[in-house]
Amino acid sequence: MAEPLQGTVIDKDATPASEKADAVSVAPPESPGSVWTRRIIILAFWAVVATLGLPHWIWTTSIYRAELPAEQMTRWSEGHACDLKYPIHVALETGSLPLDQLKAIAEKTENTLNLDNGQSLFSFQISALDDHHNATHERALTASMQQQSTSKAPSANLLSMTPTLELTHGPMDSIGTDNLVAFLVNELQQIFKDEQASITYLLRHSPFHAASKGFNLGTEATKAIEKRTTRAFKYSSTYHVTFSLFAASASPSAWDIEEALRQYIKPLLRQLSTVSDFQIDTQVQLFASFSPSIAGPQYDEATNSYKLLQSDLSGFINAAEWPLSPSIGSGPTLNMVLYIPGPGQTPLLLETGGNSWTIPQWGGVQILNPSEKQAGRLTTSDLEPVMLTFADQLISLLGVPNSPPSLAMRIASLKRERATSLILSASSTLGALNRLTRKLESIAIPPSVATSVDETISHLEQACSNLREGRYQLAFENARTAEAEAEKAFFEPSMVGQVYFPDEHKVAVYVPLLGPMAVPMIMSALKELKSFRQAKVKTS
Amino acid sequence: MAPLTSLFAFVALLFAFAIATHTSNWAVLVSTSRFWFNYRHLANVLSLYRTVKRLGIPDSQIILMLPDDMACNPRNSFPGTVFNDKSRLLDLYDDKGQGEQKGMGGIEVDYRGNEVTVENFIRLLTDRWPSSQPSSKRLMTDDRSNILIYMTGHGGNEFLKFQDAEEISSFDLADAFEQMWEKKRYHELLFMIDTCQANTMYPAFYTPNIIATGSSAKDQSSYSHHADQDVGVAVIDRWTYTNLEFLEARLNGTASDVRLGELFDYYTFDRVHSEAGVRYDLFPGGAEAARDRRILDFFGNVQGVEVDDGDAEDGSWREDLEKLKRFVEIAEAEEKRMAAKESPSEPASAQDGSIAEGRQKSGRPARDMAKGGESWLKQAVGVGSLLALGAAWVVIK
């Protein structure tokens, strides 16, 4: 349709103009039909631009930004979404007391404990253990009460492998219920005091700090907790543990590490396997030399020994030459290093005494001065003290708290702490993601991020309610999933834009592209508008 | 009210970070130019690499980006070497040492050639990688990590060119640091850049805990230090040379206590021939606190160590472990019994109930497959199909 029209326009325009160019200075009036044709053509071009070009341009240059639940994310990151509480279920069990009396003791103990710190994080729920106890919550501690015939002051002993407090007391009529309750209250407070302190410390600098107001943290306790948290690795679902034997000379060239690990380390890691997975590697390196950047051992004549200076301990690991690179796969590596000094430098001692030290968030180092018979091979019994120290370093590097003196309780306490810190970390990641997506407007947000965020929030909510119900294993697992999902959302690989384009760049790109096309279109549109207006003025 | 609360939260956060110490050191060393005439940029970066390695940062915590390989360049009249001084005493590429003293050995390059791109650099900082990215090529830092970022190449006002093909702007860099800070990926960060108009790269930064320093002011060039007539090109830039001069002379070991302020004061106009700049205002405590930081807090891998207090606990530990062992034995016996009940024919595989167990199990499918292949039916099918194929071939022929 356009072609014949155009043809007529050219014909009508061209022939009269060339013939009468000299005679008349003004072109003959166009027929209204041809004027309208021209207008329609111009309009058609503009219509193409507006209906095809513009949407296409917007479509190809816009960035997909999935809708994120900003409000919920903010609620979590500001700590309003969950009121953290830690109910501690303690069951009283006895073979000697009647159930009524036991229940009375339980009730009194609970009241006294919760009266003392009604505002605090930890609330105690004490129940007398009978046959039909409900299994909906985990029991944090079982207090097993034994009555003895001789009357003496009550005493308590915490079992190390199970969360059980063995309590012995004299006959009820001689000791009295109140005294027993007071004793029990005191014991329970002592057991959970440190954990309460460390969770308070965790929450104090977080947006969830409102929950921790009830507990007063002394400076001494703060320092101790700070030291412990500095030392411990960040939580990971997998840890690699590398045991390395570095010998300065050619011997000992072997160690019975398999057997030693089986005896001393694996039982421990098995207990910790509810928190994380562990992968163990071992290696032996001979002729390991010191790094040139440390002073090295100094001979001390008084004791006829070599002393390693305190200032050298941090540079002791020869990072350039000792093959201590991290293990393949996800998760951090805990390095356990046993160093055997060469024959010319024995005995090698630390300036400060002791023979082992811990490098925070890296691992533990030990020095063993071998005896004559240990020269060739270190047997399991030679390795026993070494492994005990490693075990000690290992649990402190994994963040297991120092108290109470029961391993089972310490691991349970670790689980509560880790659940808390994972919730905090996931919430803070949500907040970071939320702020970031608002601040960087040109960054793409793929739908997978929105899915992960939803997942994070739902798991966080579950973790929170589990926590408040006292189901700590579940809370921990949910918090772990939430944290992993939050990390996945934040570190979404496609969320890397070449973010910043200066305006000059945009001009430089668009002008050569659009300029030649836009100029005639705009000029003709203007011209036509002008003539349209003039025509209107004339006719009116 | 809301901004006030968030300000309080922010101050509290700052305080929390300020009291905490760092536990690991990372270095990101980037050269952004290739080709022979840019020899000096690679020498710059390798010099810094040598320094941080010398001061104890392990290779696993150094991310080295080298766009070209000068040692193997056909124009190099000393093949297999890179020098940063015309004395050619120190081979940065493969330090074999001199006489008695052992050298530091070779270098570990994490990103080479075409991998040195703006995108990869931003990804490295923000840790946005597909899951296949090996961990040795990632910056796995946390809120207890101090990071040294050193960049060198050709740049201009608010940008640094990457490999003649693209450029990173100071705004991109600032946003990347913001993302790192939001995700708590650094404790403190020292940003160093040696390029023309280097000081224009850091005014755009807006995240706390950064100290930034550059070699030259706006509209100033950064100059090379000297050329080696036999190598044929300039071997090092002035500002980097000044840094090295200081670090080599003053930091002899991991015990030396030298402050950042002393290093910054060493950048005089006489030495650098341009106005080196430092930005302190992002750092909590400002210039005073920043200048008082130990150089080793960024260039070395020095953390506080804790000497264990003897064997005070050993006794109780031994007891605990003994008990643990018994516990594990009981649990294992129980498991064995259960396994025996469930499948009486199969011997229990859990010999030591350890982590090795998992590996043994994972090794099993391969054997099973081999076992499955022994069945006569499968073999008959295999022979049959071979015969059929052979027949078909003969027939068609």
TrEMBL record, chain A:
Pathway, per record: Glycolipid biosynthesis; glycosylphosphatidylinositol-anchor biosynthesis
Major subcellular site: endoplasmic reticulum
Composition bias, Basic and acidic residues: 10-22
GO cellular component annotations of the record: GPI-anchor transamidase complex
Localization, UniProt: Endoplasmic reticulum membrane
Entry superkingdom: Eukaryota
Keyword Methyltransferase among UniProt keywords: no
A Pfam family matched in the record: PIG-S
Recorded topology in the membrane: Multi-pass membrane protein
One GO term of the biological process aspect: GPI anchor biosynthetic process
Region described as Disordered: spans on this chain: 1-31
Transmembrane segment boundaries: 40-59
Keywords: Endoplasmic reticulum, Glycoprotein, GPI-anchor biosynthesis, Membrane, Transmembrane, Transmembrane helix
Keyword match Transmembrane: yes
Family statement drawn from the similarity comment of this UniProt entry: Belongs to the PIGS family.
Full protein name: GPI transamidase component PIG-S
UniProtKB/TrEMBL annotation, chain B:
One Pfam family in the UniProt entry: Peptidase_C13
Superkingdom as given in the UniProt entry: Eukaryota
Location of the active site: H154, C196 (nucleophile)
Keyword terms: GPI-anchor biosynthesis, Signal
Pathway assigned to this chain's UniProt record: Glycolipid biosynthesis; glycosylphosphatidylinositol-anchor biosynthesis
UniProt signal peptide: 1-20
Keyword Signal: yes
GO molecular function, one term: GPI-anchor transamidase activity
Cellular component annotations (GO), alphabetically ordered: GPI-anchor transamidase complex
GO biological process annotation, one example: proteolysis
Region (Disordered): 336-371
Keyword Iron-sulfur among record annotations: no
Family: Belongs to the peptidase C13 family.
Protein name: GPI-anchor transamidase
Protein source organism: Cladosporium halotolerans
